[in-house]
Amino acid sequence: MSILTRYFLRESGVATLGVGATVLLIMLANLLAKALGMTAEGALPAHLIPAIMAFNAVNLLMYVLPVGLFIGLMLALGRLNRDSELSVMRACGYGPSHLTRAVLWLAIPVTLLAAFITLVGWPYLDQVRTQMIDTARSQKLLEQLPVGRFIEDPSGKLVLYVGGKAKGGYTDIFAFNQPLNSGSANRKSGIEMAPTGHLIADDDGNRYMVLADGRRIQGDPGQADWTVVDYRTHEILIPGASSAITGQSTQKSSWALLFSKVPDDQAQIFYRISQALSALVLALIAVPLAQSRPRSGRYGRLFWAFLLYALYFNLIALIDNAIKHQELSLLAGMAVTHGSFILLWLGLLWWSGNGVRRLRQRWLRWRHGYA
User: Fold this and answer.
1) Taking 90 as the threshold, does the pLDDT of residue 25 lie above it?
2) Domain extent listing, the chain
């Protein structure tokens, strides 16, 4: 490895690490806010937040690695171009082909890491995360229900209030519910009050409050047919319980997805492969895309970089949807998505290598030769 290659790898590696770490921290901060909100609602045990954040960090690396490498290379090449170092390198015989080989020293390990995370690491970790959350939910069930605040279903049909905790349960419980179907003749609006209650959970992860020695008052406003029922026990579904992040993991192994004939499985393996392959393709595009006039500015080509990144991943999403609807096969989707951007890379290489000027000179020689 030459001195210039090592120098370029050091510059681009530092820029890639800085961009990737910044993007990862921003995304993790957003997820941390959501996790704290779920903890406040009782959907996630507080002691699981560090583990969940670690799992989410691995998941986010699938998205951070391609953009971090691409933007990091653009920044490094922009800095070298601004300080006329690329011009000096070209004068020393270190041209675009040498830069491309140097980029591959960095892009191939990043692509392999992204492929391992996408195809192997995250599907396995997602199953471990699901099992861990399910176990913590069954062991810490009493800690998942907020006390002293109203819990409302998104539909507004059910509201639950728990006044306080007691040994083995809760106290001062109030509930209000309306029929899910406004035209139902068998159900009426009602309120319930019970001095005590406790939590249970079914096999699907839904949580229920079991009211003990309570009273239900049921009827419709403006009507005379009100009913008062005293009961020993009654179960009420806790609002928002089904929206927790627990449950069965939907991640399948990449090997099973690859040989599956189900369109959704084919789309999922396409998306996983594309996440890894995009890192390599974008790294190659960065070399000709960053070429500009010396001292033209470090951030002059970043607009085009962000535009290409957005187009690339929107195209991946479109092809993913087409595979789901059996409009394209897996191989056709790979060819359309990544083949088009590989052709773009070759076109940019031709353009940055003064291809237009050479083509014009050949045209002039040909025209004068037949004049």
Assistant:
1) yes
2) 3-138+248-362, 146-237
